[in-house]
Design brief:
The complex is a heterodimer of chains A (136) and B (294). Chain A has 2 helices and 9 strands; from the N terminus they run E-E-E-E-E-E-E-E-E-H-H. With 136 residues, chain A is of the alpha+beta class. Chain A has 2 domains: 5-87, F0F1 ATP synthase delta/epsilon subunit, N-terminal (ATP Synthase, domain 1); 91-135. In chain A, helix 1 (92-108) packs antiparallel against helix 2. Chain B has helices spanning 4-60, 68-71, 94-111, 123-133, 151-166, 203-206, 219-293, and strands at residues 78-84, 115-121, 137-141, 172-180, 186-194, 214-216. The two termini of chain B are 33 Å apart. Classes of the chains: A alpha+beta (136), B alpha/beta (294). At the A-B interface, strand 1, strand 2, strand 4 and strand 7 of A face helix 1, helix 5, strand 6 and helix 7 of B.
Chain lengths: 136, 294
């Protein structure tokens, strides 16, 4: 059994999950990464995707996050998520609506903003595939 | 002197008003508790955000790579004032004190020859500002239809503010809202959003600065991603504080109104009784003097 470390998943509206975890997999800006106990201090942005948490009591949790920020410090791991939903509660229709809104934004913007909108759209589509894969 | 019937009607109507204000006070008290809980729940996020911001910005100090949102555009000619107020009235001086603070600031900036633009969040602020600043009011964002204001609404506001900043429409952005102190005291506050001021963190946390963090992709990229997010958070916090303040202000305003109505009922009842007695005495005198005349 691996060592435990303190893990907190915080969204602007509430503390979603807090406690001792033994393993957390996070969709980082440059690819998925896994945090175990005694990870070196590390900071990165998070893409929309699925976070896999193994609590120290063996309970596994899968949470869909929409963008955010990960802060691994010697005292523990804090994940600041713009929006966090338990995987089973994800509202696919809402996500679809956001995707089509993002598509429109790509069509209506230009220059720098277009690049930003395109990234957002790609991320949303990625997370949709991730969710539908995880659900099946 | 009003007739007995008039007095009776008056008392009935004041009693009805008192019932309404009493009910409003109780509703406000229940909503206040909810609003306070929401504000409390949001606290961990903004605290951790502030800590991370402080960590990174401490490392960035002095370097030229600081993003625009932090360093500013280099001028302070155009100011954007974001005035966050409530959607409804009947809450004492809550809306007007925020509007007054914003108005004073706008006048001061205009006297210095700066350009001022105003964005209102909440209908009451818009109503208060449009008399004097109708021509520089940009827009009104209202959440009247939305029952539970969440982070989505806050990020909608911040997106609007940020896209205006990207288009170079202003240099400095200040947010006006009311800080919740207690039920009887709410403090109208002005907070500068852009350029962002690095949050001050207590010394105890400063010790962690010595740790060598690894950054992915890089410090600057992270900061660039973090700053817009921080603005959403600040606005979200302001909206939550405002929500609690509004309910607190309404609660004390309605408490006062209920008490005033009670006093008024007492006074009216007194004069009603006095008049009724006067009438009875008058009738008695008439009967007695009529009997004596026989």
């Amino acid at each position: 059994m691996s060592e435990a470390f303190s893990f907190e998943l915080v969204s602007p509206e509430a503390l979603v999950l807090g406690g001792e975890a033994s393993e957390v997999v996070v969709p980082g800006a440059e690819g998925y990464f896994t945090v175990l106990a005694n990870h070196s201090p590390f900071m990165t942005t998070v893409k929309p995707g699925i976070v896999d948490v193994k609590m120290s009591d063996g309970e596994a949790k899968r949470i869909f996050v929409r963008g955010g920020f990960a802060d691994v410090s010697p005292t523990g791991f804090t994940l600041l998520a713009e929006q966090a939903t338990m995987l089973e509660d994800v509202n696919m229709e809402e996500l679809d609506a956001d995707i089509s809104a993002a598509r429109e934004a790509v069509a209506n913007s230009e220059g720098d903003k277009k690049v930003k909108a395109e990234t957002k759209l790609a991320q949303l589509e990625d997370s949709k595939t991730a969710i539908s894969m995880a659900m099946n | 002197m009003a007739s007995l019937k008039e007095l009776r009607n008056r008392i009935a109507s004041v009693k009805a008003t008192q019932k309404i204000t009493k009910a409003m006070q109780m509703v406000a008290a229940a909503k206040l508790r909810k609003a306070q809980m929401a504000a409390e729940a949001a606290r961990p996020y903004s605290e951790r955000m502030a800590k991370v911001m402080a960590n990174i910005s401490a490392g960035m100090e002095g370097s030229d790579g600081a993003p625009k949102l932090m360093a500013g555009t280099g001028s302070d000619q155009t100011h954007l004032l974001v005035v966050a107020t409530a959607e409804r009235g009947l809450c004492g001086g809550f809306n007007s004190s925020i509007a007054r603070l914003a108005r004073d600031k706008a006048r001061e900036l205009m006297a210095e020859g700066k350009t001022v633009k105003i964005l209102c969040v909440g209908k009451k602020g818009f109503d208060a500002m449009k008399m004097e600043f109708g021509d520089i009011l940009l827009d009104l964002v209202t959440f009247r239809e939305i029952k539970n204001i969440g982070f989505a609404q806050a990020s909608q506001v911040s997106e609007q503010i940020l896209s205006m900043f990207d288009d170079g429409e202003y240099d400095v952005c200040t947010l006006f809202y009311s800080e919740f102190q207690s039920v009887i005291s709410q403090i109208p506050t002005a907070q500068q959003l852009i350029p962002a001021q690095a949050p001050v963190v207590e010394d105890a946390d400063a010790a962690t600065d010595d740790i060598n963090y690894e950054y992915e992709p890089g410090e600057e990229e992270i900061l660039e991603d973090l700053l817009p997010r921080n603005i959403s958070i600040q606005i979200f916090r302001a909206i939550l504080e405002n929500g609690a303040s509004e309910q607190g202000a309404r609660m004390s305003a309605m408490d006062n109104a209920t008490r005033n109505a009670g006093e008024m009922i007492d006074k009216l009842t007194l004069s009603f009784n006095r008049q009724r007695q006067a009438q009875i005495t008058k009738e008695l005198i008439e009967i007695i003097s009529g009997a004596e005349a026989l």
